[in-house]
């Protein structure tokens, strides 16, 4: 009887531990460069001067030759913490960004950057690297 109770207790503890584990963060994430963040912040402040972005995370996409997906939490007076994590696609290199596109709803709503889903090629949250960047920024 004691062995069965012990086995059941272990099973319950293991299932609780597995269910409460934090989502795995990709090792492909790197901190967004100072220039990438400057571009994002400028686009955010053009919509609402009092809004800003916390340090973002970038993942180089395997779907495109020179595209980084960058995700960052957007902050502001009417935005709750962790409520708005935006996703942008930035062409160029990590330290030499060129063009910025908004990819998800938060980036489109809170920044000035063009809609990447209407660009050529059509950028989306399902492209390689997009979800990884979002996961890193949400941690």
What is the strand and helix layout of this fold?
Layout: H1 2-19, E1 30-31, H2 34-47, E2 52-53, E3 57-60, E4 67-75, E5 85-93, E6 96-102, H3 105-110, E7 114-115, H4 130-137
Parallel strand pairs: 6-7
Antiparallel strand pairs: 1-3, 2-4, 3-4, 4-5, 5-6
What does this structure look like?
The model is unreliable at 4-23 (pLDDT under 50). The protein has one domain (27-137). It contains 4 helices and 7 strands; from the N terminus they run αβαβββββαβα. 36% of the residues are buried. It has helices at residues 2-19, 34-47, 105-110, 130-137; strands at residues 30-31, 52-53, 57-60, 67-75, 85-93, 96-102, 114-115. Strands 1, 2, 3, 4, 5, 6 and 7 form a 7-stranded mixed beta sheet that branches. It has 139 residues and is α+β, with helices and mostly antiparallel strands.
How would you summarize what this structure contains?
The protein is 33% helix and 25% strand. The protein has helices spanning 2-19, 34-47, 105-110, 130-137; strands at residues 30-31, 52-53, 57-60, 67-75, 85-93, 96-102, 114-115. Strands 1, 2, 3, 4, 5, 6 and 7 form a 7-stranded mixed sheet that branches.
Spans where pLDDT lies below 50 across 5 or more residues = 4-23
Instruction: Give the terminus-to-terminus CA distance.
Output: 43 Å
**Into how many domains do the coordinates divide?**
1
SSE series: HEHEEEEEHEH
Q: Helical element count?
A: 4
Mean pLDDT: 86
Instruction: Characterize the main sheet.
Output: 7 strands, mixed
Helix/strand-derived category reads alpha+beta
The helix content, as a percent range, equals: 25-40%
């Amino acid at each position: 009887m004691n062995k069965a109770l012990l086995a059941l207790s272990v099973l319950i503890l293991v299932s609780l531990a597995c269910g409460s584990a934090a989502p795995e963060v990709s090792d492909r994430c790197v901190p967004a460069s100072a220039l990438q963040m400057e571009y994002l912040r400028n686009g955010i402040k053009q919509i609402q001067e009092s809004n800003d972005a916390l340090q973002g995370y970038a993942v180089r996409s395997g779907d495109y030759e020179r595209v980084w997906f960058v995700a960052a939490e957007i902050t502001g007076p009417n935005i709750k913490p962790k409520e708005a994590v935006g996703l942008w696609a930035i062409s160029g290199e990590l330290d030499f960004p060129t063009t910025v596109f908004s990819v998800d709803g938060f980036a489109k709503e809170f920044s000035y950057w063009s809609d990447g889903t209407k660009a050529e090629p059509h950028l989306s949250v399902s492209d390689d690297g997009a979800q990884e960047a979002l996961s890193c920024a949400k941690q």
